[in-house]
Amino acid sequence: MKITKPLNLGLAALAGLAFACGGGEKSAETTTPEVSETTPAAPAEEISLEEKYKDDPIYIKGLEKLKTSDCMSCHMVERKIVGPSYADVAAKYESTDENITMLAEKVIAGGVGVWGEVPMPPHPNVTLEDAKDMVAYVLLLKK
Ligand code: HEC
């Protein structure tokens, strides 16, 4: 019996505080709803795929090898030029060993007909290992 009395007083005080806070928050909420709703969405969409994956070891290794060949003259990450964008290729294929090998062989042998009538020329000087690293980089670039 002796314990309940101070406890009740404490609860009453807490309830009073909560009520005071609640009232305060409500009036603040009505004045600033627009600002907090528009700000979080914007930066997420502006992050480029390069920015998103730049620290991934697959990205770093693949990009280094891509730069030693002519891939960049026909492919861009997020825009179609002569060939499809890497982002479009990544959206089309799961990043499995099977797909990486299949596409690596296609990079070496050249190919046509999957993305249109423009052919990709063969790259006989690229080794299968290097081509796989390049393709792994391409398939990493998912949005
Ligand atoms: C002369 C332009 C050109 C160059 C250089 C080039 N590509 Fe391509 N690439 C293309 C075209 C065009 C296609 C679409 C081929 C098709 O429709 O089958 C393509 C398709 C691809 C595909 C998707 C293949 C598929 O079957 O979906 C990958 C992956 C690719 N290229 C990677 C590379 C890599 C890696 C390099 C550098 C070693 C490279 N490309 C160099 C023009 C090029």
TrEMBL record:
<dbReference type="InterPro" id="IPR002324">
    <property type="entry name" value="Cyt_c_ID"/>
</dbReference>
<feature type="compositionally biased region" description="Low complexity">
    <location>
        <begin position="29"/>
        <end position="46"/>
    </location>
</feature>
<keyword id="KW-0732">Signal</keyword>
<keyword id="KW-0408">Iron</keyword>
<dbReference type="Pfam" id="PF00034">
    <property type="entry name" value="Cytochrom_C"/>
</dbReference>
<keyword id="KW-0349">Heme</keyword>
<keyword id="KW-0479">Metal-binding</keyword>
<feature type="signal peptide">
    <location>
        <begin position="1"/>
        <end position="20"/>
    </location>
</feature>
<feature type="region of interest" description="Disordered">
    <location>
        <begin position="26"/>
        <end position="47"/>
    </location>
</feature>
<dbReference type="InterPro" id="IPR036909">
    <property type="entry name" value="Cyt_c-like_dom_sf"/>
</dbReference>
<feature type="domain" description="Cytochrome c">
    <location>
        <begin position="57"/>
        <end position="142"/>
    </location>
</feature>
<dbReference type="InterPro" id="IPR009056">
    <property type="entry name" value="Cyt_c-like_dom"/>
</dbReference>
<keyword id="KW-0249">Electron transport</keyword>
<keyword id="KW-0813">Transport</keyword>
<protein>
    <submittedName>
        <fullName>C-type cytochrome</fullName>
    </submittedName>
</protein>
